[in-house]
Amino acid sequence: MNRIRRYLGVVAALGGALLSLAVAAPAAFAAPATFPPPDPAPGQESVTRTIVEAGMPAWQIILIAVGAAVVAAIAAVLADRAWAARHSGAHGPAWAARRGVTARAD
User: Domain limits of the chain?
Assistant: First the structure.
């Protein structure tokens, strides 16, 4: 039964990756719309002004990095606690009795 769940998990992960690629592909290959510049009147030159010069501000990048670090830390703590509970028999005596598990001396 564990093998089937593992295989289904792998298939689900691959399906999710394929779905995310299918969703992101149109945006990745999109070309910016180019419009012909308006014809200037005789004797006038066209002036091009840059409105946006840079990408994302540094404070937003720092905020994203801090948020990702906090999420990773929380996930690591939860995974460690789940692993410790699974290997220490911390589910309680009722759980152990139902499953016929005896206490381990690790």
Answer: 1-31, 55-106
